[in-house]
Structure prediction request, 267 residues.
Amino acid sequence: MTAAAGPKPRRRRAITVLAIVAWTVILAIGAWWAIGALRLYGETNRAAPRYDPPVWAGQNVTGACSGGFYARDGKTIVILLSAHCLEPGVTLRDDHGRLIGLLGPRASLTDCPPGRFCAPSDFLTLALAADRIPWGHLDLIDMGAGGYRTLDASTRAFACGDIKVGARVEVDGRERYRSGRITAVGPYEFQTDTMFPCMATTDLDVGVGDSGGAVLVDGAPAGIISRNIGGRLAFTPLAEGLENLGLTLCTTPTCELSPEQVVQPAG
Prediction:
């Protein structure tokens, strides 16, 4: 009896060691799968490296939400950002106190019911400091895993009338590339919110931080991510907002300016 008792603890120890090894392998495989899933789901699977300074069109902007498109306001280079994420007139700086740019006015409409705010599109401008301008790349949209997209010099920004139900839509807000279809186009008149003459809804999921991101429709610059409607991403058109603020969409690498010509924001 006593002699027979010796092997049992050893067997139990062996089984315990094997179990620990097995669970370690399972957990390691699970962690590897989870990391891989995150990479597929998120930003880590980039199609191309970033530039320095980075192209913010389509990507996260330091201190803001997602970036829209680059544009020219006279001799100032701006990037479009969400009007509901930021306040006009504020100087935006990074975590080290370095100037990023100055926030300009929101797109807005004067023809609006009393007590309401109306806008053709949900964006304002960020006039960029010199070292934040990606010279030679102002015609690019960084769609992360979807790759860089280059706007041709003849590119025209889409207006509401150009956006059709069923058209293909692409975004990279929160540095997550997604593509889908437009499901509806019409006015947005929610009682306690900004009123927009035109809002397009999609079948894409949406989350906090998507706002302001560039929207491509059938490959063309079409809008700015604006709202969550029933858990789905919705956006406002681009052309009307550009016209409202007197902006010119950047469709060439330097947006027809040189670094010496650019007027810098105060700050």
